[in-house]
Write a structure and sequence with these properties.
CATH architecture of the largest domain: Distorted Sandwich
Number of helices: 5
Strand content: 35-45%
CATH topology of the largest domain: Protein Yojf, Chain: A
Structural class: alpha+beta
Number of strands: 13
Order of helices and strands: EHEEEEEEEHEEEHEHEH
Radius of gyration: 30 Å
Number of domains: 2
Helix content: 25-40%
Shape: elongated
Length: 272
């Protein structure tokens, strides 16, 4: 990583030209400073002077972050082009994007830090522990709910929505299953009750079971379920991440040592 601390506008421009402008697709640029942001595009906005962090990513994405909040206050999407100039001891950053047509100008009157670095990251985000994961677990093993349960439909449409899981128990009684990924709430009880009512009306079934499944069901929710003749099951949410197949240096060294010991033992064997 290359950095310059509290540079002048001219020094910052020379730094950016040397370490970023010649290969923007391979370097990420970070600029900390007191700036003004003028945006024109689908709307028009002006962000008055303030100390901010500007990130220019290797794919052309430009983000303007204030000292607080998670989201950038201004940004330009992937594929944006950037250009730097100086004027009256100020560093100017011009960002342009064609589709949609928009542009952003950032004027720095004081700079705290400029840094350029190259990052390598080929990983993809894997999200687990979602409601669909619990549903998949139940489909694979309906015994999680009760023995003999047979699931016949996922996302079964009814008048008031879509039932997460629909099936039959060992007595061939329809079973409506509503799944929640976290703590069950009173609204989930009413949702389940409406689904059960829909099935009773559509199929003219005198008896339909409704089961609310969640990792945690408060006593108040359990009581409400019982009052409406509904059931509940607390189903643990399994969080399983993919195995990391990357071997550390320690793993590699241990394996290599083991192979050398085996090779040495074989060479001293009387059968050889």
């Amino acid at each position: 990583m290359k950095t310059t601390i509290q540079p002048s506008a001219a020094d910052a421009l020379r730094f950016i030209t040397e370490h970023h402008a010649t290969r923007p697709e391979k370097t990420m640029l970070l600029i900390l400073g007191d700036c003004l942001v003028d945006y024109q595009g689908r709307a028009r906005s002006l962000l008055d002077w303030g100390e901010r962090l500007i990130l220019i990513k290797q794919d052309g994405t430009v983000l303007v972050h204030q000292p607080v909040m998670r989201e950038p206050v201004n940004w330009q999407p992937t594929g944006s082009t950037t250009e730097f100039k100086t004027r009256q001891d100020q560093l100017l950053l011009y960002c342009r994007h064609t589709k949609p047509a928009e542009k952003m100008k950032v004027t720095f009157r004081k700079l705290k830090l400029v840094a350029a670095t190259s990052l390598v990251d080929h990983a993809h985000l894997v999200i687990v522990g979602m409601e669909s994961d619990i549903v998949n677990d139940i489909i694979k093993d309906p015994g999680i709910i009760e023995e003999g349960l047979r699931i016949v439909k996922r996302e079964k449409p009814v008048r008031t929505g879509a039932i997460d899981l629909y099936g039959y128990d060992t007595n061939h009684i329809p079973v409506v299953i509503e799944v929640k990924r976290s703590q069950a709430t009173i609204s989930a009880v009413h949702q389940l009750r409406m689904y059960v009512t829909d099935i009773k009306k559509d199929r003219k079934e005198p008896k339909v079971r409704g089961i609310l499944c969640a990792p945690h069901i408060p006593d108040m929710v359990k009581k409400l379920l019982e009052e409406h003749g509904l059931e509940w099951r607390e189903v643990e949410r399994r969080v399983v991440l993919p195995d990391d197949h990357q071997r550390t240096l320690r793993d590699f060294t241990a394996q290599a040592t083991k192979e050398l010991l085996i090779a040495g033992a074989d060479s001293q064997s009387p059968d050889r």
